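USER: Fancy drafting a protein?

ASSISTANT:
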Amino acid sequence: MASHRRPKQPSRTRVTVLTTAAAAAVALSANAANAAPSEKLSKDEVKAKVDKLYEQAEQATEKYNGAKEKQQKLQKEISTVQDDVARGQQELNKLRDGLGSLATAQYRSGGIDPSVQLLLSSNPDDYLDKASTLDQLSNQQVDALKKIQDKQRELAQERAEAAEKLKDLSSTRTQLEEKKKEVQGKLAEAQRLLNTLTAKEKAALAAKQERANRSSSDRVDLGDAPPASGRASAAFSAAQSKIGTPYVYGATGPSSFDCSGLTSWAYGQAGVSIPRTSEAQANYGTRVYSQSDLKVGDLVFFYGDLHHVGLYAGNGQVLHAPHTGAVVRYEAIGNMPFQFGVRV
C-alpha cells in the first residue's frame, strides 16, 4: 500500500533565506543590465577636466603666492621689531644703571632719604605717582625716572607688536601649507586623469600642447601696436626672452615661472617693482577696459577673480605663463575670459 505522507515543508528560516537570495539575484541582474558599459572618459573629456583642474590649481597658486609674500614680509617686520626691543632693553638698562649711580652717590653724601632705593626697582611707575616720594627727588632724578618710564612703555608696545606679528605669521604659515596642499592635490588629480588615457591618446594631447608651445615662437603676427611706455617695452622684451620657459607654480624665474611670477619678473628687469600676485597687480596702475585700447606691455587680467595675468603682445595676443605642463608663450587673448588691462 502506497504511503500518502505529506511532503516535509521547508522551515520559515530556510524560506526567508531563499527569498532574500532570489531578490538579491534579481536586483543584481537589474543593476547589471542598467549599468553603464564603461566609466572611462574620452580623450576630450579628460582634457576638459584636466584644464579645469589646472585653472583651479592656478587659483590656489595665486593664494599661495599671496600667503608666501605675506610670510616673508612678516618675517622681516618681526626681525626689525625684535632688534628694536633688544636695543631698547639695552637703553633701559643703561638708564637704570645711571639712576642707580646717581641715587647711590646722593645717599652716601646724605642728600637723599634711604627710601629712594625703592625707586631702583624694575617698576618705577608706581613711585612716580607718590607725591611723598617725588618730594625727595631732585629734578635730575625725576627726569631719569620719566625716561625709564617712557622706555618701559615703548618696550611693552614693541613686545606686544612682535607677539601679534608672530601670531599672524603662524596663521599665515598654516594658510601657506593649506594652499600648497590644494595646488598639489589638483595637479595630482589632473595627472591621475591623464594616466587613464591610452598611449596613443597621451601622444595626441602632447602633440597638441607642443603645437601650442611652438606657436609662441613662430607663426604669430603681433602687428605694429605701440608699447605703453619705454619701461613697458623693456618689460615685454624681457618676457619675450623667456619664451619656452616652463610653468611652475610659485616660481618667479628666471628658469621657471607662474603667471604673476613672469609679469613681476619682467617688470623687475625694466626697473619697476610691481606686486607679486595677480590680484595685487590688478590695482597697481591705470585700468584699460577696452581691448582696442591696449598697448604692448600692458598687464592683462583674466577670469572673474583675476587669478591669471599676462602681458599684452599686440594684435590680440597675450604673452603669458599659462599653466602646468605648458611654457611661456603667446596665446590669443580671446581664449580666456578677459577682464581688463592695467597700464603700469
About this structure: The radius of gyration is 36 Å. The chain is about 55% helix and 10% strand.
